[in-house]
Amino acid sequence: MTPADAGAELRRLHADDDLLQVVNVWDVASAAAVAAVPESRALATASASIAAAHGYPDGERIPLDLVLAVTGRIAAAVDLPVSADLEAGYGDAGETVRRAVGAGVVGANLEDRLAPLAESVAAVRAAVAAAEAEGVPFALNARTDAWILGRDRPRATWIADAVERGRAYLDAGATCVFVPGDLGEPEISELVEGIGWRRVSVIGLPSVPPPDRLAELGVARVSYGPLPQRVVLAALHDLAAMLYAGGVVPPGIRRLDAPPTDPASTEERA
After folding, report:
1. Which of 60, 75, 178, 235 makes an SS bond possible with 143, Cβ 3.0 to 4.6 Å?
2. DSSP secondary structure, 157-212, as one string
3. Per-residue pLDDT of the chain (270 residues; tens, 9 = 90+)
C-alpha cells in the first residue's frame, strides 16, 4: 500500500457508514499482532504506551525523534494505514505532522489541552497544511480535552465547549473530532448532534457503549488509548506470578511478533 493509497483509505474509513475501530499499538510486535486480525482496517499508536515502553511518562516527555522512529517502524511493518498520536504537536504542529508523514503515517491525533481556541485552531490549520504540502491524503483526528481537563465544569458547559471547538477544528480541515472521556449515551448523542454525524471520535473505556451502539449513535471512530498495553502488561504480570508459583508456560502459544521477512526468527531462538 503506497502512502497515497493508505491516506486515501484512512480518510475513507473515517467517512464510511461503518464505525472505524482502531486498536492502539506501541511497537512493531504489537502492531503485527493487531494487524494479523482480519477485522483490522487501520492502526493507531498511543502516546502513553510508546512513552511507557521507553521509560517515559506521557505528556511529550519522550523525545519526538524517538516517537517518530518507533512510529515509522510500525508503519513500515504493516500493510494498513497508520495514525500517530502526536500529543499537542511538540510545540510546532505543522512541522511535527510534516515529519510524521515522512515517517510513513497518514493520520494523527492532535490534542488541544484546552489552549485558547484561536491558538488551537491555528495548530489544526498548520497540521492540515503541512500534510497537504506533502501530497499525501491525511486524516487528522483533532482532540479536544473539554472533558478530560474541563469535566469539573457543569455538564452543559463542557459539552458546549467541545461542540464549539469541534466545529472550529472541522472548519480548519480536521477529519473528525476526538472527545475522550468517560461518556455515556446522552453525552455522545449531544456531541454527535452538535459536531456532526460520523464526525466524532471517542475512546472505548469499559463504561462507554459498545461498538455496535456507538455506530448507531453516529460515532465515526473508536480507539482504545493505553488500555491495550495495560491488558497485555497485566497478562505478563500474571504469567510471571504463575511461573514463580511453580506453574509452566501454557502449550499452544502462537507467535505473532516475528517479522515475516526474517527466516531466522524461529521458536528455537526464543
Report:
1. 178
2. HHHHHHHHHHHHHHHTT-SEEE--SS--HHHHHHHHHHH-TT-EEEE--TTSPPHH
3. 899 999 999 999 999 999 999 999 999 999 999 999 999 999 999 999 999 999 999 999 999 999 999 999 999 999 999 999 999 999 999 999 999 999 999 999 999 999 999 999 999 999 999 999 999 999 999 999 999 999 999 999 999 999 999 999 999 999 999 999 999 999 999 999 999 999 999 999 999 999 999 999 999 999 999 999 999 999 999 999 999 999 999 998 888 765 555 444 434 344
Residues 115 and 145 sit within 8 Å (Cβ to Cβ): no
Cell digits of residue 61: 516527555
- The whole-angstrom separation of Cα 1 and Cα 12 is 15
Return d(Cα 23, Cα 251) in angstroms, integer.
Answer: 26
- The dihedrals phi and psi of 85, each to the nearest 5 degrees, come to -85, 105
